[in-house]
Amino acid sequence: MKKIKIICSDLDGTLLNDDKKLSNKNIQAIKEWQSDGNYFGVTTGRSEQGIEWALDKNFQPDFSVCLNGARVHKFAGSISTHTIPSIDVVRVIKIMKSFSIARISLTKMRVSHWHSHLSLNELNQTGIEKISVQIKDNKQLKEMLKLLKKLPLTTTWSDVDYIEVSASGVSKLSGLKEALLTETSLNQVAAIGDYENDLEIVSNVGIGFAVDNALSELKEAAQVIVNDNNNDAIADMISYLKN
After folding, report:
1. Helix, strand, or coil here: 92?
2. Cα(145)–Cα(148) distance, rounded to whole angstroms?
3. Worst-scoring range by mean pLDDT, 120-134, 195-209, 221-235?
């Protein structure tokens, strides 16, 4: 088995259980992994605030890839950001508003703001790092995905009824590459997730893992399937890597 020194984990549906909580077993396993001289990072669609709320100071990640790669806290301590061109922000919102959506979120300067009603006059903004939309109708969601993926941006399906849009070339994998030290190889990394926005990163690291509750496409791409997110998936993953 490849020598893994770095784990990167998705949060919702993976590290967190369905109640959006960390299990004690996962916390202990991560702390032991780090104390053995290894590294643990998070790769998520959440903002920095969302990561802070989720982890609740139970442990400190060595790096974090936020907003699906739009904002990266690197090993070296620096932060990089990638924003969506303002003209593309307008294009994305116009497509989203042509469907029956529940709400739209614009993330800027670390903070996400959800809007039930959003005027196109408000959209000529710079500095938008991620646009998210909640859409309940699965058929409409898939139609919207097709339209958004025609734009020169990165569009992913991140949960049952959520679509997320980032700048071109931005993804969890691109964020991971930025976060790592230059001498670190992706072969030293294990990644785990549950949804479409985890597919690229799970497919391109040393060992790709999927939780048992993951989409079937992600399970097919992963080399190893571990317990579901309600049954200490990360502890199960770390146990596999140690043995």
Report:
1. helix
2. 5
3. 120-134
Helices vs strands, H then E, count in the chain: 8, 13
How far apart are the C-alpha atoms of 33 and 234, rounded to whole Å? 11
d(CA 11, CA 17): 9
Nearest to 193 by CA among 2, 6, 12, 3: 12
What is the distance between the alpha carbons of residues 24 and 144, in angstroms, rounded to a whole number? 39
Burial class (CB within 10 angstroms; exposed 0-12, middle 13-18, buried 19+) of 213: middle
Please report which residue ranges of 44-104 form alpha helices under DSSP H.
48-55, 86-97
Check: CB of residue 6 under 8 Å from CB of residue 39: yes
User: Rg for the chain (alpha carbons), in Å?
Assistant: 17
Q: Are the C-beta atoms of 66 and 55 separated by less than 8 Å?
A: no
Q: What is the pLDDT of residue 160?
A: 80
State the sign of the Cα–Cα–Cα–Cα dihedral 2, 190, 203, 84. Answer: negative
Bridging pattern class, strands 162-166 and 128-134: antiparallel
Token readout for 144 is 């919207």
The 71-73 sheet, strands edge to edge: 79-81, 71-73, 63-66, 39-43, 6-9, 189-193, 207-211, 224-226
N-terminal to C-terminal alpha carbon distance within the chain: 10
- The answer to whether 46 touches 67, Cβ cutoff 8 Å, is yes
**pTM for the structure as a whole:** 0.91
Kind plus residue range of the DSSP H or E element containing 175: helix 172-179
Q: Tell me the sheet residues that pair with 42.
A: 9, 64
Half-sphere exposure of 235 (CA within 13 A, CB side): 14
Q: Are 68 and 162 in contact (CB under 8 A)?
A: no
